[in-house]
Amino acid sequence: MTDKPQLVHITPETHGVELDLAYATDNNFTGKRIYKEAHCLLLASAEAALRKAIELADSVGMKLRIFDAYRPPQAQKVLWDFLPDPNFIAELGRGSNHSRGTAIDLTLVDSSGEPLDMGTGFDAMVKESEHFHKGLPQHVQRNRLLLLGIMHAAGFKHIANEWWHYEMPGSRALPVIDNSESGPFKLM
Prior knowledge:
alpha+beta
């Protein structure tokens, strides 16, 4: 029997980030709470890259606000059942990189604690959420490019459809981590 990969807890106290974990509330695209408790976890390699992103954001007077990180496969199924659209939700057979502990959804907030205008909200399943969607105001493009630059410089890559989603390269080679029953994630 092989041990499960270890997930590292991310907290405001240990990492200097803001947490707004959407799936531990009903303030997400499903309109219902998916996790009973809010926990932010990443694999050690992704957590190390996140620390670099935090440092880079701080160097320009910004902070990171995290919406989601590790997601148990059962939670992924809840999302897929609600919106079976492979443009925005990873198909169950493929598995989400969130369920591998290598993906993170986040934005930038300024020194006053206000999130930068990214043109759409987190988890807006619309064309305007694409990283380089034409027709968005210049300040939105600038804000998205700032987030993109920080995350790429820290070692993450982006996906085309979601300005908020970043993941570690090579994530698909890693196994899905089922931490829903033994870990801090209990589904609703």
